[in-house]
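task queued by scheduler; priority normal; single chain, no ligands, no partner chains; default sampling; output format set to structure tokens
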Amino acid sequence: MENLNPEQDFVLKTVKSRDVHFVRCWFSDALGNMKSFAMVPGELENAFANGMGFDGSCIDGFSRTQGSDMLAFPQASTFQVLPWRPESNAVARMFCNICTPDGKPFAGDPRNILVRTVQKAADMGYMVNIGSDLEFFYFKDAEDTQILDRGSYFDLTSLDYASDLRRDTVLALEKMGIPVEYSHHEVAPSQHEIDLRYSDALSMADAVMTYKLVVKEIALKHGVHASFMPKPLQEYPGSAMHVHISLVDEDGNNAFFDEADPIGYNLSSTAKSFIAGILKYASEFCLVTNQYVNSYKRFFGVGSAPSALAWARGNRSALVRIPGYRPNSQESCRIEVRNPDPASNPYLAFSALLSAGLAGIQEGLEPPAPVEMSDLGTSSREELLADGISSLPETLGQAVDLFANSQLMRDTLGEHTHSYLVRTKRAEWEAYQGAVSPWELNRFLAVL
């Protein structure tokens, strides 16, 4: 073990002391689906030093048949024992960085894309903090949308059938070193939210991937199904992944905080330029933060999610909000982006949001005036545009076209992942366009 660093040495000792018999290597495909293979503890030293080989042609968004040999290098800093597995013959996990056979980071590895984006922020003098609030539904099974309760926002009654589910999920997350700030029932029946305490961007993306798996695993143990589908119920609001972002400068200060802000929001010019970048490029990165046909159903109907390219402090119908729970606290000063949904790939979503905000800083952008008094969700897109407020794409098809022509997204994600998403999402949109829905049959079959 003489060539191991302290973190790797700690992993080997923990594996022995905790009776770990299998170590799962986790990584993400381009769409954010968790991929995994298991190895026995005897392979750990070799995996740390030389990586574990696998066929990348089997992973969506990786390589085709030629040049598909890949190496997965487990990251010792992400080692955790899985609390929902037995304590004897235990199972642990580590996230992996994906490399080509020559040891270079693979351009299509979503985790590596976020590492690159975070490094860009570091080159500009910033460390990135991100927090995430993820909503989801519990259903009786995966075959239908039969709800488990009739509860609503913050309910703590017998209606909140899933309190035990949330409790077990939070305990499992905390055992894996993922601190939770809040958990509660959401607005819709059988809808819930668990909020993760902020951390650095890469750790938060790993935490979101873990969170989604833990929620599903605990649900299965209770005999129900958890879904992160953006809009599973037509008559109720969909599920969001609100993303909270702040930047820390080289002196350790919150770069978004300025108590001398002339508009009284305690925001620095850096924060305002970051917001302006988000608003300018939101329509171009929307394919990443809202990547499925169903994602765009969240922006219409009951409980429609924010799609107006505006910002505010108290107005939750704006795309970007400045949380005001502790308005004079430097530590709490941040922005909240409200359009992403929990079905997105967190590595790519965080990369896109961060890249757009950093571009706003580099370009010296200034945001429009905040919109506080108007419920933007009650205005049509035409009415908003007449007031100078644009909106996100209405459909996946529009989002693909805007993303395809975005130089910022091509630079951020790299040609490999950018072209894959354009190709794959255009195919999804075309397949959806060719499908005949029950709504169409009910509306037209008898009368046309």
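post-processing summary
- The chain has a mean pLDDT of 92.
- The chain has two domains: 6-106, 115-433.
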